[in-house]
Design brief:
The structure is a homotetramer.
Chain A lengths: L12 H13 L2 H9 L10 E5 L4 H12 L3 E5 L8 H9 L3 E3 L6 H12 L5 E4 L3 H9 L9 E4 L2 H13 L5 E3 L5 H24 L7 E5 L3 H12 L3 E5 L3 H9 L3 E2 L2 H7 L2 E4 L9 H4 L7 E4 L9 H7 L2 E6 L2 E5 L5 E5 L5 H4 L6 H21 L6 E3 L3 H15 L8 H8 L3
Parallel strand pairs in A: 1-2, 1-4, 2-3, 4-5, 5-6, 6-15, 7-8, 7-10, 8-9, 10-11, 11-14
Antiparallel strand pairs in A: 12-13, 13-14
Helix pairs in contact in A: 1-3, 1-4, 2-15, 2-16, 3-15, 5-6, 8-9, 8-15, 15-16
């Protein structure tokens, strides 16, 4: 059953090592956690499966889990985000890898299934890709799992639905919902890297452009904040009326997406939903409009509809597909509608993933030690994990938070 | 038992009417709620007591409740925030008022007690001033109360402690925690008006100054945002390590307050706690430092300690007290440490209070209709109230939120 | 010929002294220049006439010139900006004053003429009010003038026209054009104080509002910057196409004022021109639109046209006049169209005027010493004055600029 | 004498064409000028030499000049900024090219000399590379030149020194100093692309980092603005005291570079000078500090000193060289100290270069028609060129600037 790694080219390892080393230099929190917590032996010999974007930051987490004694298997969570050099380096560092860049759908599926078939005890999941496949296709493997943790908003939404159906026989930690994860990764990390990726890939000037942000959740807020920072005029579209008024109070223009379609120069989606930009939007867009997705899947644009409308499709520039419409307008889709920051750039900033993977490492450690006494189903990350990650981060910054006095604590509890 | 109003000067009414009329022009949400909901008769003849800062926005809420048929009694929640002209106008509009600007502590206490003694059925409270006095001093009046709602974070913290002690015999809605309240009022409203008040009262240039924000809750975020907007360099001090890292990611400098004391030009508190700036801070501050409070009470600075340290105290400018220390440094305290936006200016922006009081009006209406079937104790504002306020606000802006399709709703619920 | 001061009420002096003392605490640059330069006796016994907004900052300059031995006469440059308490304090400090708040046009004119009739040797002018009156009405007094300096863009434009006509028989320094003046006073000073004044006087929420800035010179840039900082969406209208594209690159929306009239919530003018908002704009404005002027004169709105269009006019709030149009729309004009930051607030920030008046004090000192050897007509402020003011300012901040090495200086001069 | 092109690989042309086509789509101003002006035949048969960064935007200018009938020869202005694919495409479009990516110094020099040897009539220069070589090494070729235009601040400084020495026998237009050039290219273009390049090449998180900007000229302002926009805390170092106070008023921290060296996380230079960061800075820097140059040459860091101090040097990541110091600290230099936006990314945004090259195209056109009647030496670009570029840009944006009335024009000229 134990299979050999599948990667593109072992010779790429040196570049992969260099990238991982760069991450190691900028990930002091994760390193501290490896030293202080993972080193206690509780992960020794445990089978860990990870399915996250396979680039250098993920790799560094895998390496540290491996160094803590775990048997680690990884596969990519997105066909375009896998970096072959990093995979090659991982194999040299003792991690089993099933991943290549831009595989066929069948290959991609095969990598995930092979990962499952290692019968993991601890699953670090992304979009519930591994857990949902186990439940649907390999229920017999569920019994070996002691617990899982989930990286994304999309995955947590799915797992909540699964939990309500009662199909989760083990505890699943909603790592995404830890404050030290989503407040930084989803908000600042996605926005920072997605806006920079749009600038780099298009070589266009964002200042003065109208950037339409679809969705004003954590991801949308970050997108709006950095688009604004680069000088864009931001328009926000969102179904939740309260969030829409928040966007307005931030100074963004708010409107329905059918109107936004007419005025936008760049459209960025971050909703976690599907077809948030469809035929009725494409019909209204200006010639030259740029479309980029920063949500989870490549469903946020209705690309099927766009292809049907288009009279031609060509690569206009690396990572940019141009669709020409019958009336001559050209729409430019970045990274084929996949995550623009990770399919067309190096993903989230290192320091952000340092926090996220510190949470994940502690989740794996927690599951290894406490899963037996935890109830099955989706549950929040223990507060101590958030607290510990935050305190270590502040230590690395040399900053001391305020300390409440006894008098102050008493005051906060009193009402008389 | 029913007493006459106590105000400073009935002749000031015309100015008060003018201020209330200005509010009415800029409060379309509250007006719409009065028309659509309050007009159904459910408040007719009900005794309503309100203790909120007595200026024109509060007055407009009182007027609308009165027009809906309630018997309304109001008193001020803060000695310096009461505007005598507004009180005079309220009396002419049929509201009973117990309030004067800058009363003695005994007078202030008397106003609150008189308000309680009207045996209110519905209490709109601020800092739990009325409810806590009833519980402590007039328990016999509690039975006439059908329910209350609470305006502030400070009040909700107190009421939670009371609830845990089991002393709340009626339902209390945490109006502060409604999204349409705290996301706007606590965040944008306090920051916007406090920073503007500091600028207006000092006539100083905020750009390039180091503004130290104590506390990074909703209030602190707003203070930081607008201080930054006026060109200040913002330093944040905060006990919660996660919030401190959020402040860092926003681009603010974070440090312990003992170090901040040395570098700050302006200090603004918004913690809800007491003595967050004390002797050890005053010792380190630069000559000319400005201290302003945007929290609930005038406890955030340890003014007793400052007075003890000072060799002299004088009014340096309207609303600014100068304390000279033995080494010649001068510290400038705004508004005697009371809320700088309301004791030294006109308080929150009208449009913000339009949202807050829309929530409060609907809370009063909800209690009038449903209190009997609600459990006693502190509880959240019903979601429909938030939703309704948000939708009416968007209507006034002419904005339509996105509408999810059936396919999208199904997608969000599916995991297969 | 020497006349007594004309002020409103000598009893107001204590408040005036307090305001001047506050300025003195926050004007270290001007103080240093008084100590290091003005104290050399060159101003002793010289007749100096100043016509600038008569509030505490101007007063402090007048006091320092008086302390340096000059015979100082002051009058106000704007009917609404004179503060009577400050005038009373000035008289007690030995300065001759011809100014009262809100005089009749005849009184205002009389004050200026009395100031001229002191036969000043050095004129510190604002809008060329004194110099133009001398040229037009009292040419015989020109011969006693050794030189003048001019505070404003408007005045420099006028004086350039006068210079081209050859009617300036003495040197006039364009103090406004000194870098340490216009880069700070016109840009940051006007914007900072005007936006804060709009917020304070209206009690409205600027975030999310559309603020239309008329003119994108130094004043317009500052207005846009601080409106943006308070969360507004900024629209810029401007005749110079290059400046308009600069505004666009800053992320502001740019459009013609006829379209802007339809979308703006607040209009702020800073053009130095007349009737930049007229009947065709008023016709298009939304109900409730706010109009504020931050330019030099009260000509920027065509108020005569507005009064003609209106069916009623009333004071809606202190400093706010409401004009109701036949279709029911209400337009709100702040400070009767006069400078909103100075007619409805305390004017520019103290630290900004510290720089401006440091320039002015050095201009007066320069004229006292060198006017005889200067050519007549408009001319730039000597570079050393700018340099000295900047270096003293950096000293007060404890900051040392980079020092170029010999190698670097050589490199900048070489081309081989 | 006429030589064949020298490029790396003709087979790369398709990618080059694609990049040029992308530029063409986003350069409406340059296209309009080609249609309206260049098409008049005045460039037909004229020999034009260009030395500018050889990527797609420059290429598009070369193509348009070629299409207007000129004989165009191009070479690169920087060894690392030449893109081989673009060169290949240019050759196919009829432009003579002497350029390869990363040539030896001898090759690079040879390309420039070959360009000169085409005996150009019109020179579009960058850093005065061509003109200075002609003057120094090939004076006999000067007589064929009718005029030149210069792209950069650095070049203008050099040419001014040359002009003062009297060695410029033909007119040279300071294209850099045109408002439509430096206000956009130097300020927004460099900052936007340099900050994005730093983010993309390092994969680090700029928010919360201290970014030290060396120099507060146009380039420094743009760097500071976009670093701030990405959430960094900006520190500015600058020799001019006035500019330093401007930086302070913008809300940036200002300090001497020796102190900045200790607190900076990222250092970006934009001074046009040499050795602005040297041994005394490297000694103070934190482990992991990032150094990027956005000035003209790779002289802004004293790399020789750094190499001497370092115990090792290695490639830490693509475009990042790591220098390890004896005490273990590692400094990371981007793009070998060359222009970070163009040696490690695609250079300025297309829309910005659309403006710059519109100016350059009109300069070439102007020289072709009017050089004979122009005085020799450095001179400003005619105002009409700025005006025309700005008006065409506004046309493409659909924006109409304000139009002054007769009354307004008269008012601005009057002083009575």
């Amino acid at each position: 059953m134990i299979r050999e790694s599948i990667i593109k080219d072992a010779a790429l390892a040196p570049e992969g090592h260099r990238k991982i080393e760069w991450v190691a230099q900028h990930a002091p929190v994760l390193r501290a956690i490896a030293e202080r917590r993972l080193s206690d032996g509780s992960l020794r010999g445990r089978r860990v499966a990870m399915t996250i974007h396979l680039e250098a930051k993920t790799a560094y987490l895998a390496v540290l889990l491996r160094e803590a004694g775990a048997e680690v298997t990884v596969s990519g969570s997105n066909p375009l985000s896998t970096q072959d050099a990093v995979c090659a380096a991982l194999v040299e560092r003792g991690v089993r890898v099933f991943a290549t860049h831009d595989p066929t759908p069948e290959e991609f599926e095969g990598y995930l299934m092979r990962t499952i078939e290692t019968a993991p005890e601890i699953v670090i999941d992304d979009g519930a890709e591994l857990v949902s496949r186990m439940v649907l296709h390999r229920p017999e493997l569920l019994q070996s799992v002691v617990g899982a943790s989930e990286e994304t908003t999309t995955g947590v939404i799915k797992l909540r639905a699964m939990d309500e159906e009662g199909v989760l026989p083990f505890p699943v930690l909603a790592a995404n919902d830890a404050r030290m994860k989503h407040l930084f990764d989803n908000r600042y990390g996605t926005g920072h890297s997605s806006i920079a990726s749009i600038v780099s890939n298009t070589n266009l000037f964002l200042s003065g452009k109208v950037v339409v942000v679809m969705g004003f959740g954590w991801v949308g807020r970050g997108l709006a904040r950095y688009a604004d920072g680069m000088g864009a005029r931001v328009v926000v579209c969102e179904p939740d009326p309260v969030k829409l008024i928040e966007a307005h109070a931030e100074g963004y223009e708010v409107m329905n997406s059918l109107r936004a379609a007419e005025v936008g120069d760049v459209f960025v989606t971050g909703t976690g939903n599907l077809k948030v930009l469809g035929a009725e939007h494409f019909e209204r867009m200006k010639d030259g409009a740029i479309l980029a997705n920063a949500g989870h899947y490549d469903h946020e644009f209705d690309l099927a509809a766009l292809r049907e409308m288009a009279v031609s499709e060509r690569e206009a520039r690396a990572n940019i597909t141009e669709y020409e419409l019958p009336d001559g307008r050209r729409l430019h889709v970045l990274a084929q509608g996949r995550l623009v920051n990770i399919a067309a750039a190096d993903g989230h900033p290192v320091e952000i993933m340092d926090l996220t993977f510190a949470v994940q490492a502690l989740c794996a450690h927690h599951l290894a030690n406490h899963a037996a006494s935890m109830r099955p189903g989706l549950q929040p990350v223990p507060r101590e994990i958030d607290e510990l990650v935050a305190r270590i981060k502040l230590d690395t910054m040399g900053v001391e938070p305020e300390r409440l006095t006894e008098e102050q604590l008493r005051y906060l509890r009193s009402w008389r």
